[in-house]
Design brief:
Mean pLDDT: 74
Radius of gyration: 59 Å
Order of helices and strands: HEEEEEEEEEEEHHH
Largest sheet: 5 strands, antiparallel
Strand content: 25-35%
CATH topology of one domain: Immunoglobulin-like
């Protein structure tokens, strides 16, 4: 009987430990802020991202109710040849899906990223912590030190699609020369102007042909006079002959 009670207690204790562990730490292996990003000054590598209700270092719990810890394990590398880079964790920010920005918090974790002026060519690795609301979905990490603005995940290269509209303006100049061909048809109409001059020359030729035709129909004056004299003589002679018969 005692053995059964002990076994039941062990099972309940094991279940409680699993529940506490899963409620305190949720590792987001598929987080979009895991990866590498860089510019000409620095390279950021994030190895893991996790959230927890408590941490084993001071201050142990977040300062606000309803908040949890968010932690990244990251490294920063100075890619420059001479200048130094500050590893101040206040330059490290995260954003959630609602575009809320969170500034890092300071803890006594011995593995926390140390503040230093890191020489050129060197790398430092450590943890960084933030306080975020429960259920917040972290989508971005960025390091902004007033010179570099290194972001994870890196923005997609959408500007590469802009050069495609550039060839389209080259089509417009080709249509302009086609309009010049319409001007070539204008001089062809000027060649029609000499043809009316030939019609003007025809008009005088037809006018003289109309004048001779009525002249033969009109008798000349001498013939009319002779006919009239002949008629007067004939009528006078007829009267003389008629008087003689009486």
């Amino acid at each position: 009987m005692k053995n059964n009670n002990k076994l039941a207690i062990l099972i309940v204790t094991f279940i409680l430990l699993i529940t506490i562990a899963t409620s305190q730490i949720v590792t987001a292996q598929q987080s979009p802020i895991i990866g590498t990003t860089s510019d000409t000054r620095m390279r950021i590598q994030i190895y893991s991202f996790s959230t927890s209700t408590t941490i084993p270092y001071y201050p142990n719990t977040p300062s606000q109710n309803g908040y949890v810890w968010a932690m990244v394990d990251m490294s920063i590398t100075n890619l420059q040849t001479t200048a130094t880079i500050s590893t101040n964790t206040l330059y490290a920010h995260i954003k959630d899906s609602q575009n809320h920005d969170y500034t890092s918090a300071t803890t006594l974790d011995p593995q926390e990223l140390k503040l230093a002026q890191m020489p050129a060519g060197q790398t430092q690795r450590g943890n960084i912590y933030w306080e975020i609301p429960v259920g917040a979905s972290i989508t971005n990490f960025y390091w902004y030190d007033y010179t570099s603005n290194v972001v994870l995940p890196s923005p997609s290269p959408t500007p590469t699609a802009s050069p495609t509209p550039s060839p389209t303006p080259t089509i417009t100049p080709t249509t302009a020369p086609t309009a010049t061909t319409s001007q070539t048809t204008a001089p062809t109409q000027t060649t029609i102007n000499p043809t009316p001059t030939t019609q003007i020359t025809v008009a005088p030729t037809t006018a003289p042909t109309d004048s001779p035709t009525p002249k033969p129909t009109v008798p000349e004056f001498p013939t009319i006079g002779l006919i009239a004299i002949a008629l007067v003589i004939a009528s006078a002679s007829a009267l003389v002959i008629k008087k003689q018969h009486k």
